Amino acid sequence: MAKINSSVLPSLAPELERDTPEECPECGSPDIVEDWKEGQNVCRRCGLVIQEKLVDLGCEWRTFTNDEPGADPNRASGPANPLLESGANTSISMEGGRGIGSSLNRAQNMHTISASDRYLLDVFTEISKLCERNSIPHKVQERCNEMFKQYYDVLTLKDDGTRVRSLREEETKQIIAGVLLLSLRGENMARTFIEISLMTGVPKRDLGRVVKLIDKRVKSTIATSASTDTSMEDGVLRCCSALGLPRKVVNAATELANKARDLDGVYGRTLVPIASACIFIICQLGPQEERKTAKQVSDAALVAEVTIRAAYNKIYPHLKGILPSGYENSERFKDLPVPQTES
Known about the structure:
This protein is mainly alpha-helical. Helix content is 47%, strand content 3%. α4 (169-186) packs across α6 (204-217) and α8 packs across α11.
């Protein structure tokens, strides 16, 4: 008959991490397995029951026999979404999308989830997919969700709590693009209008219009997001990465851009053209293998070449005093294009 070591039996409620013996007290074998059905820890080698009456620390099960299939046996659902109007609900599994489980799931969704919440869930799913495809952090996704919900309430919510109208698919797509741009800006990961346009398929003109509307109607949310004081290094790093430039170019261009942004004629300009112009300058002053044309920098930064040249023309007169260490005495300085004077 198997022995029971009563000295290790749990007498109090189990903690999140169970204190499991590292080896069998009978034979010294470290091969100990937990039989969760019987609630026991058993030595594989000698069969000694080391612990018994163990409480399963995992979540509850939906199925109660080994014959019922299902990849997700958890009965407990996730936490309630504070952005939804509906409270916590029981989740009904759809086994393979067919049968009684599917029918019950559809019936439950029709009666327990409001139309506005179903719409928001679809929007949040779309935002999640968009962020995953473009490697955008989860904190930006959460900010997008919150901002979209607030703007959705501004557009559709009446004083009595009812909704005035539903949003068209194209309008929804434009708002998603707008809140994504503002959320990235608010987290110091600013993207250009062209980049967001390419990510979402929303034309740049429509994107600019909806961003202004969101900024105007949801000022409490955008107050900290509309700042242009975003990370210069992030813009330089992304452009240099697309061009295949080494880290020393990133560091030099970032240092130059941070100095140039406060110059007369440059202050107040968008950061991406400033960063692009500084990358172009550092590349021209570096070795031959690092040299890039304005067109190459333009394609990598997704900024018009004429915009980069306009920023370059404003920076050029001050270059001697702001070039990073190692570039101030470059022999290639004379090869830099001299801006044409305005007539």
